[in-house]
Amino acid sequence: MAWLYFSLAAASFESLRDVFSKVITNKGNQSLDEYLVAWALRAFTLIIYLPWLLLSPNPIPIIGKDFWWALLADATLSTIGGILYMRALRFGDISLTVPLMGFSPLFLVIASPFILNEFPSKVQCLGILLICFGAYFLNLKPKENNYLAPLTSLINTPSSRLMLVVAFLWALTTSFDKIGAKNSSPLFFSASLYFCTAIMTLPIVMVYSPNWLSKLKVNLAKLTLLGSLKALDMWCHVMAISSTVAANSVAVKQSGLLMSVGYGYFLFHEKNIKQRFFGCTIIVIGVCLLSVL
């Protein structure tokens, strides 16, 4: 049962990371922009992550021939996705945007016939329908009589649109994660990925984040805490998947989506929370069907 506790802990730390990211990017004149937060998340996570890697039995594994191109592709997509993710959190409701990450495994399953020549089972098709149905309820407003309004809102709301793009990008990175890990080790590839994304994001921060260095110094403690939450999330996730079938851990970790909806209501006083909680629950069930079966 240890894997269950680690999975729940990973979901909790991931949800807290999203909440804290939204808090520090929504404080009026003292708020941090999404570029600096996206960079700091990777840079500080890497600093905290390195001792874990160095103390592992095989810190520098044999590098396979497919490592470098997988790392480059993964880092490029992760850099873009990381900035868009923080922007969606900054300007959108957390109870509306974060559950849309449930589309990531959906996009992966849809792409499988074209990339891996693998076709979804009947149960996975049901999971796809549930995710789409849940997204409909996320945007449902009971007072509106227009039944197509939730679908148009999903497309027309900038933060929701950004999060769907992130879900698609991170679905693509899943394949590169596997290739990179097989051609090195999971710990080494993760550290390499954080290093590359931090390097790629830094020039963007220097151009689009005014006075970024002074902001970094003033908010050093906050950004360190943000990186710590991400590192704890990763550590608990790795501990969970090392103790059970990876699909079981992934399914349980989806409870973090429900936590984010709860935080949206209690901390940010977001509206239409009943519909969003119901929609998020349906999405979680759909994701579990895609992950477990």
From TrEMBL:
Residues annotated as transmembrane: 37-55, 67-88, 94-116, 123-139, 159-176, 188-209, 273-292
Organism (species): Dolichospermum heterosporum TAC447
Keywords: Membrane, Transmembrane, Transmembrane helix
Claim: Membrane is one of the keywords in the record: yes
Keyword Mitochondrion: no
InterPro entries reported for this sequence: EamA_dom, EmrE-like
Protein name (Swiss-Prot/TrEMBL): DMT family transporter
Domain EamA: 3-139, 162-291
Annotated family: Belongs to the EamA transporter family.
